[in-house]
Design brief:
25% of the residues lie in helices and 25% in strands. By secondary structure, it is an alpha/beta fold. The structure holds S-adenosyl-L-homocysteine.
């Protein structure tokens, strides 16, 4: 059965007949996602709905639907649409699920998760990015998201357990705190490996332990924190 998207109505200029970016999103979903094997109809629908161009600095907005990651300021990036769709599909979200996202960044992935799950808790370490993301998500009227500034390598224990955990920054190894905060039967997706190249990993928690399945090679900005990489910039 196709699960409905959570009942979120965007402002009319986002997705209505006058949205000039709508056909670009339809093309993106077809040629970059469905054609490469993203099959979940709800994930495809969420990717068609979220106005990615609003999550970029204005000088990048016309590049929003290209098949690539893009800079969002503070040395960080918004992931390529295909990566966002794959990670989301691996989480196998249901409308009642509670999701923890580490690395809010632009808030784009957060919005995609919010259309598919019951609620999203997202943690970002850089306050300026978090504030921009907060404004965008508020403008879109997404009201099932809570955003927090802090070291997400430690998770967000206050609202644990989570049915799904998504890390959108590269981890040297899966942070134990995130495994602790994952519900039994829950799914965790994270890029794991050295700073220059990682592997996307899906973990399913059974009997208190994660069973890992490797997916494909990828490259993310580092997860900086107590259970991530050290901050070399200081
Ligand atoms: N999901 C984002 C992609 C963000 S890039 C999007 O759709 O735009 C990864 C983000 O992780 C960056 O914004 C970076 O600042 C953040 N990050 C890195 N280490 C972190 C940590 N320990 N806790 C929370 N966020 C972290």
């Amino acid at each position: 059965m196709i699960q409905p998207l959570t009942n979120q109505a965007f402002p009319a200029e986002c997705g209505g007949p006058d949205d000039p970016f709508r056909h670009l999103r339809d093309d993106m979903a077809e040629s970059q996602l469905a054609a490469r094997g993203v099959l979940d109809p709800c994930v495809l629908e969420a990717m068609r709905r979220v106005p990615r161009h609003l999550f970029l600095p204005p000088d990048q907005a016309d590049r929003a639907y290209l098949d690539q990651p893009l800079p969002i300021g503070q040395g960080q990036t918004i992931s390529q649409p295909y990566m966002v769709a794959c990670m989301t599909e691996l989480l196998a979200l249901q409308p009642g699920h509670r999701v923890l996202e580490i690395g809010t960044g632009s808030g784009y992935q957060t919005a995609v998760l919010a259309l598919l799950a019951g609620g999203v808790v997202s943690v970002e370490r850089l306050e300026p990015l978090l504030e921009e993301a907060r404004k965008r998500l508020k403008y879109l009227g997404l009201d099932n998201i809570s955003l927090h500034c802090g070291d997400g390598s430690l998770g967000f224990p206050e609202q644990a357990p989570y049915d799904a955990v998504l890390v959108t920054a590269a981890c040297p190894k899966i942070p134990p705190a995130l495994v602790d905060q994952l519900a039994e039967g829950g799914r965790l997706v994270a890029p794991v490996g050295p700073k220059d190249l990682q592997e996307l990993v899906l973990g399913v928690k059974t009997g208190g332990k994660l069973t890992l399945r490797r997916q494909f090679g990828c490259r993310f900005v580092p997860l900086i924190g107590r259970q991530g990489w050290r901050d070399d910039s200081r």
